[in-house]
Structure formats: structure tokens, C-alpha cells
Amino acid sequence: MTRLVVVGNGMAGARLVSEVRARDRHVTVTVFGAETWQPYNRVLLSNVVAGTMTPDQVRLLDPAWYADHSVTALPGVEVTSIDRETQAVITAGGGREPYDVLVLATGSQAVVPRVPGAAGAVAFRTLDDCRTILEAAATARRAVVVGGGLLGIEAARGLAGRGLPVTLLHLAGHLMNRQLDAEAGLVLGETLAGLGVEIRTGVVVEEIFDDGVRLTGGETVEADLVVFACGVRPVTGLARDAGLEVARGIVVDDEMRTDDPSIFAIGECAEHDGTVYGLVAPAWEQAAVVADIVTGTDKTSRYRGSRMVTRLKARSVELAAMGETHLTEDDAEVVRFSHRAAGTYRKLVIRDGRLVGAILLGATDAVGNLTQLFDRGGPLPGDRAGLLFPGLSGSAVAESPVRMPDAAKVCQCNNVTKGQIRACWESGARDVEAVAAATRATTGCGGCRDAVEGIVGWLCEQEGVSA
Ligand SMILES: Cc1cc2nc3c(=O)[nH]c(=O)nc-3n(C[C@H](O)[C@H](O)[C@H](O)COP(=O)(O)OP(=O)(O)OC[C@H]3O[C@@H](n4cnc5c(N)ncnc54)[C@H](O)[C@@H]3O)c2cc1C
Fold it and tell me: Which residues line ligand 1 at a C-beta cut-off of 6 Å?
């Protein structure tokens, strides 16, 4: 029997274990998790900070699942080294677990800037961090969030939604500068300001002190809660110490295998084809590939890279961004609509007649179609306005489930197509919950829930029509 050991029971590790069990019961599985919690959906932590979900509601697998599936899960146990010679991992308590196949799924850790006083601030990565933030928020008078990327914005919006005055400090000239162009960043900032988040861009934090934050130049921003959301760094120490090849992440091939054939790496700790992904969809795809290979279900399974779509999960702020959003008219065809007073900005970036980037801010009604066009990389219809505004009469592509091809990806996180949802409906699933149970659609970031509801509703209507 193959002995599989997994280090890291986060979103990639937990998914791998369930993918393995869905294929095979003859592999013995042991999974180590440094966090004391049962594995949880990290993507939904913003909802925990915002108070719209409890820690229980974000759990991925519970102890009963492990018992039922004969998986040994060891929460709160950190692996400190790998003995590649004898093929065993060593834990912080001195325990030793032999493996035939080892999978590293150690994720990332939050980057905390090296400024004086930073030790007194809290990062935003784990459920423990959320607990600390929420405890502090209960008595705080003012909060500062450092970092205006996706996580910082979600944290700031969540805290503001709790009635806490929040200042969001960002180093770059505009918010979410990696995903958005300057105009979109500006519109987003204005939307957030309207929701009670004070935005300061182009500022550098020099020091954290008891009553707030000092910026370069001496200005201070008052706060008794400081949250850092300054990016993440892949956790690669175990691999590096064991002599595996590490660049930014642990280097893997298309099988997700490291340069040691017995050791794989998946999720945010892995670097595939020069890319370290920071989203859950690639991690879950990678987990499926490793499960195929380790169980022998499909030894030809390969991971070929992912196209990333970023969606913000902040109440009253609709935002989706994908691809090369920064290109201008000099390098590509750009179709843009901006209406700052309404908080709306839409942009398509087209090269050689194909969609290579898009931003939808203020309303994401077109996101389903644009994601499909971006994923498939096929030629675009000539009606560009119809792409930006799916409701326009005569639009070339309608958002309606009727017009969506079966191959269209509806759930980005779990890679579920309309065809799979239809097949699931045909085998008896009549609501979103049943479809989610069978396909996992909606169980990642939850951003596709409306689309799945639309498809299920339409199929039910069709049934009514033909009955
Ligand atoms: C607030 C927030 C919002 C996000 N929103 C989105 C989103 O909307 N969409 C999206 O796609 N992604 C989002 N992400 C990113 C997404 O959560 C990550 O891509 C995903 O969690 C990566 O999974 P992973 O298993 O690689 O890493 P993790 O989930 O970080 O899990 C790694 C686990 O390994 C454990 N570990 C590390 N070293 C050891 C060791 N030596 N021994 C034992 N255990 C160890 C860690 O404690 C951790 O539990 C968000 C992240 C955060 C924090």
C-alpha cells in the first residue's frame, strides 16, 4: 500500500486528500496541519471579518469525514524537516512519519513589513488572525489597514461595515495596482470612500506606535487597531532545507513533481512554469492532477497552468479583473467605459481579435461571458459594446444561460462548466445545494452562485415548458 504524507492542511492539502479518497481507498493518507483548526475555506475569511459568516460556516472538512475516510489528520502538528534518505518527515515534537509519496502544500505566509512596532500589528491570513482582528475591533475606536490589494480592501470594507472608522494606506499610486489600471483604481477608491473607508495612496508606513501609524514625512494616522495586508510569501523553508529546487516557490513540473520524484508540491508554495499562483482555482486543479497520478487513476494527468480571474468579495463593491489590464491603446485595442459618479468602470483589452484582459467595476453582469472568452481565447464578436453591456439590444453575446455554450466555465474555483451543471440537473439535482454537493460549484469564493442559480432555474423552467 502506498503511504502518502501531506504537509499542510489548508485549501490545497485538504482538497488533495479528498480527491485521493474520491479515487482510491488503498493509499494510506496522513496529513499534517500546523494550524489547530480543521481545514477551512481561507477565501471566505473576509466574510468572517465582515461578520457575514462564522468560523463554523467556512469549514471544509470535519473530524467525522476523516474518520469515515480512514485519513489520519494531525491538526496543530508542524513538520520541521524532511529526511529524504530514509523517506520520512519529522515533526516539531520529534515524531517521524515515513512516506512513499510526500506532497508539500505549505501555502504562503503573510508578509509583515520590517518597521518598528510591526510586532504589535496583526496580519490577515488565518482564522486565528481573524479572531485577533475581531477581538480588537470590538473595543477599537479607529483602524488602519496597511495594503490596498485585494485582501486589504476586503479587510477594510469588512471593518467599516462593522461601523469602525478605517483608513486604508497603500504604497502604490492606486488601489489594487497589480490587477487594475489607474482609472479603475481611482473609481474603486471613490466607491470605498462612499462606504466609509478613508483611502490614502502613495504613502509609506515608517512606524507603528501605540496610538497609530507614522508615515514617511512625519504625518501620523490615528488607530488602535492596525492590520497588515501587504502580500504573501510562499512557505518554502522545508523544501529548501531538504535540498529541493526552490526559486520563488518550490519548483515543479507538469505532474507537480519536484526534482525529487517522490515529492510533489501544490498550491501557493509551488512554482509551475515560472508562476506562483495566489488563487485557489490553480491549487485545486493541481490537487486533482496529483491525486490522479498518486492513485494511478490517470498517470497521464498534467497541470498546464491557469488563467487567473480576480473577484473582490466586499459588500456593495462589485469588481472582477482578469489578464493584461494595464495595456493601453499603444499595445492593444482598448474598449473602455468610465462613469465615475456612478462608480462604474469597464474595460476590455483585445489583441489580435482576442480578449486578453478585462476590468468590470461597479457591476459584474458581463463577467460570465468575458471569463469564457478570456479562458477560451477564441475570436471575439465584432459588437464590442455588447460585450461590455450584455443587456444592450442587439448585443452579440447574451449572459443568459440559454446562450451559454456547454463548455463555458461557470465556477472558476472548481472548474465546473455549464455542461456539467446540466448533466447534474439531468441526474436529479434540482437546486443549487444539490448541484454544489455533486459538482462543488459555488463552494470556492461563491462568486458564481447567481450564475448557477440562473442555469438551474432556466433548466427547471424548460422542464416546466416541455412537461
Ligand atoms: C482573506 C483572503 C481572501 C482570499 N480571497 C481569495 C479569492 O477571492 N479567490 C481566490 O482564488 N483566492 C483567494 N485567497 C487566496 C486563497 O486562500 C489561497 O490561494 C489558498 O488558500 C491557497 O491554498 P494553499 O493550501 O496553498 O495554502 P493555505 O491555504 O495557506 O494552506 C497552507 C497550510 O499549510 C500549513 N503549513 C505550512 N507549513 C507547514 C508545516 N511545516 N507543517 C504543517 N503544516 C504547515 C499552514 O499552516 C496552512 O494551514 C484569499 C486569501 C485570503 C487570506
Answer: 7-13, 32-35, 42-43, 45-46, 78-79, 105-108, 124-125, 151, 154, 235, 238, 267-268, 278-281, 283, 311, 313, 445
